[in-house]
Specification:
Growth Hormone, Chain: A, 2 domains, about 70% helix, single chain, about 500 residues, mainly alpha, two-stranded antiparallel ribbon, 2 strands
């Protein structure tokens, strides 16, 4: 099909010769009179490639004339048909340079911004809630196992604490592996391996009779499974939200509180009814049922991203990222002291019954449902997560110090309610804030996994150190309380430095 250059639209934009921009030419005249007598300047000329069906015109110049010129209506007016036909042609044209710059790289994505809502996005919030239920919910329930293992395995509190701390450490540490593999397109494989290891660890714990067997099954195997499900799933969820990310993560993180209610209650009731072995097996079946929807429906939004190092060391050159990582390490160094030792403190120091100890643990976890949602909602709508994570850390440190003065069961209930809310807020704000430090969504899994791994060392050493301090104090919890409170107090300084490094001293929602 031959190209038609007779329309006024094409006549006034095509040049008569193909010279360089430094020697502009007059345009084609439509008749005996020259309607564009003024010479063209280089800044008013831009090269274009126009493709008209099978005809290609190379190095054609489109002239953008000064607005002071006047044009005849015949030359400058297009009817609707011409606008549709030729306008579409020009909208699809490009220079060689433009074409090159717009060629997508193998790893680039043009999916647009996160949906920030809709059925699929909120479905993944529900699925992530179930992942939290089986990972953090089970880990936060270790207090009930701490009491049982101390008696049944005849070990010190510090030795038993290593089981729970290793579990939490691996949950966080293998985030580097899980996050990187998820970014590379292996989310489903990694997630299913994690589910298998979780269930294997729980069912094998039901067969254990000695300390080292429980350590390997409950601590190592379950911890690995938790890590391979939690971090990849959180990485995927964060790509579905931007403005509502903190709120969405808060709802998902409430699964940790849900699990912290269900698992201690189930273990407490079932131990007296069916014994330890079948208690763990029933817990395993609960885990399996909660994992089925996630296995079937979890879907990464972004295509695989394979470029870059396994660990992005350059992230630590960003002061905001480095200070935040240090702050979270110090915060979690003391944060889990109450989750591990609240029940034993009530039993050993206040003479509480086992049922009362379990109730305190359930309150500590259960109030976390509100603690994970309300602060995150405030962070999304009003302040931003960065602006409230530091005040909550300061409140947590004050509460740990106040715990040293509690000498009654009623005081312990009050402490469990307030501290449970604040600690849950920190647990939920931690990943929500960490994802804001990553500007490239394709690297969310790697950077988040790096922070989780560093924080994992705090969770690994914090509870055993507290147990050793209790033992060194002859059963007194004062030294351990001072250690936990001071570590969280130091985290406040680091988190404040991170916030200032990222946004300065002025108020800004961040």
């Amino acid at each position: 099909m031959a190209a038609d250059f007779s329309t006024p639209y094409l006549r006034h934009v095509l040049c008569e010769e193909f010279s360089t921009p430094s020697t502009p030419t007059r345009t084609i005249s439509s008749g005996p009179k020259d309607i564009y007598p003024a010479p063209l300047t280089p800044r008013n000329i831009r090269a274009r490639i126009i493709r008209v069906k099978d005809v290609r015109i190379v190095c054609v110049r489109i002239a953008f004339y000064p607005a002071t010129r006047s044009y005849t209506s015949d030359d400058m007016t297009m009817n609707d048909h011409e606008k549709q036909t030729h306008g579409a042609q020009f909208s699809n044209t490009n220079t060689d340079d433009d074409s090159h710059s717009q060629t997508p790289s193998p790893n680039s994505t043009n999916l647009g911004p996160p949906p920030d809502g809709g059925f699929t996005a909120w479905l993944h919030v529900l699925l992530m809630h179930l992942v939290f239920f089986n990972s953090w919910g089970f880990a936060n329930s270790f207090g009930i196992f701490q009491q049982y293992y101390t008696v049944s395995l005849s070990q010190s509190s510090s030795s038993i604490a290593w089981i729970g701390s290793v579990q939490v450490f691996l949950l966080l540490f293998v985030g580097v592996i899980g996050g990187r593999a998820s970014d590379a397109g292996h989310f489903h494989l990694v997630f299913r391996i994690g589910v298998f290891l979780q269930l294997l660890g729980v069912f094998m714990t039901s067969l254990c009779r000695t300390y080292w067997q429980v350590f390997l099954a409950h601590g190592v195997c379950v911890g690995l499974g938790n890590g391979l499900t939690f971090c990849p799933a959180l990485s995927v969820l964060s790509t579905y939200f931007e403005r509502n990310r903190t709120f969405a993560v808060g709802i998902a993180a409430a699964g940790g509180a849900s699990g912290g209610l269900v698992y201690p209650a189930a273990v407490h009731v079932l131990l007296g009814e069916v014994g330890f072995a079948w208690t763990l097996r029933i817990v395993g079946f609960i885990m399996l049922a909660a994992h089925v929807p996630s296995i079937l429906l979890f879907k990464p939004r972004l295509p695989p991203y394979t470029a870059g190092a396994f660990v992005e060391w350059t992230a630590f050159k960003e002061s905001a990222y480095t200070f935040f990582t240090m702050g979270m390490f110090l915060s979690f160094w003391g944060l889990y002291f109450a989750f591990f030792y609240l029940g034993t403190f009530a039993r050993d120091r206040l003479g509480a019954t086992t049922e009362t100890s379990v109730n305190l643990l359930m309150i500590l976890n259960g109030i976390g449902i509100a603690g994970r949602i309300i602060p995150n909602l405030i962070g999304d709508r009003v302040t931003g997560p960065f602006n409230i994570v530091t005040p909550f850390s300061f409140a947590a440190c004050l509460l740990i110090y106040c715990w040293a003065a509690v000498d009654s069961i009623h005081g312990m209930y009050a402490f469990a309610i307030i501290y449970g809310f604040i600690a849950a807020a920190l647990q939920a704000l931690f990943p929500a804030t960490a994802t804001t430090l990553t500007t490239d969504p394709e690297k969310t899994g790697v950077r988040l996994g790096m922070i989780l791994s560093v924080v994992g060392f705090a969770c690994l050493t914090g509870p055993p150190i507290s147990g050793a301090l209790i033992q060194a104090g002859g059963g007194s919890y004062l030294y351990a309380q001072i250690f936990a409170g001071t570590s969280i107090a130091l985290s406040v300084l680091c988190l404040a430095a991170s916030r200032v490094s990222k946004a300065g001293w002025g108020w800004v929602k961040i």
